[in-house]
Structure prediction request, 137 residues.
Amino acid sequence: MGDFDVERVLIDTGSTVNVLCWQTLEKMGVTPDQLRPETRPLMGYDGVAKMSMGDVKLQVRADGVTRKTKFAVVDAPPIYNAILGIPWIYAMNALPSTYHLCLKFPTTTGICTLYGDHRVARVCYVIEKKKRKTEDA
Prediction:
């Protein structure tokens, strides 16, 4: 994203927006005045609505295919640094498989398949479960 390699990115077929955590943007050197001040409520996995800080547009590159992508920015502790939702999936003409933990999309040289890391996916899942238990207690 931009000029940075971003790890722990969730491809979410249930998200109607692309989401980027503020801490990730700070590491990229983005300042709050670079956000477009369009706040909106976003419903989290925990069922709690949070207000976004604004929007930012960044170039997202996946295996040589680049798309300008609009993100809603949230100031929350990140489990994932970014969530690429339906708008990005559609723009990439991508086909995600949660079962196989992969994403396929067309490129100028054929079909590209990107694979997720099962270990990292499991760690993120465990962190999310612990976070929910802590908030419920």
Remarks:
- The mean pLDDT is 84.
- The chain has one domain: 9-136.
- The beta strands are 9-11, 19-21, 41-43, 49-51, 54-62, 65-74, 82-84, 95-97, 102-107, 110-115.
